Amino acid sequence: MMRDDRGSVVAEFAVALPAVALVLLLGVGTLSAAGRQVRLQDASADAARLVARGESDDRARRAVTAAVSESVTTIHARGDLVCVSASAPALLALRVSAESCALAGGF
């Protein structure tokens, strides 16, 4: 006697679809967070160079915020260096952060 397998492919697809969707969503979210991290790192490096050559702290903060929305920026001196730390929300409740330093008075 042969079993009737009709409909088994649909049932297997229905079981696998949520897992595939979850993996795709996590992959896209991870790529988005990584891209935000790279933009934040570049922006903090630019901001550190701006402050190091004499631009105002406000101008540096605006540069970071323009590159990565909702970012929080702090600027502090560390010896001869001017350092800019920035963080921004990423995926769900996670935050990405970056810090860059530049030699004060440098060009």
What are the main properties of this structure?
single chain, 107 residues, alpha+beta, three-stranded antiparallel β-sheet, 2 helices, 3 strands, 52% helix, 23% strand
Describe the 3D structure:
The structure is a single chain. This protein has 107 residues and is of the alpha+beta class. The chain has one domain. Helices cover 52% and strands 23% of the residues. The chain has helices at 8-52, 57-67; strands spanning 72-78, 81-89, 95-103. α1 packs antiparallel against α2 (57-67). The radius of gyration is 23 Å and the shape is rod-shaped. The protein starts with 7 loop residues before the first helix and ends with a strand.
What is the oligomeric state here?
single chain
Indicate the overall shape: rod-shaped
Overall mean confidence score, pLDDT: 90
Which regions contain 5 or more consecutive residues with pLDDT less than 50? none
H-E string: HHEEE
Total beta strands: 3
Outline the biggest β-sheet. 3 strands, antiparallel
Structural class determined from secondary elements: alpha+beta
Percent range for helical residues?
Answer: 40-55%
Radius of gyration, whole Å: 23 Å
Termini separation comes to: 85 Å
**Number of folding domains?**
1
Give me the number of helical elements: 2
As laid out across the biggest beta sheet, the strand order is 1-2-3
Tell me the β content. Answer: 15-25%
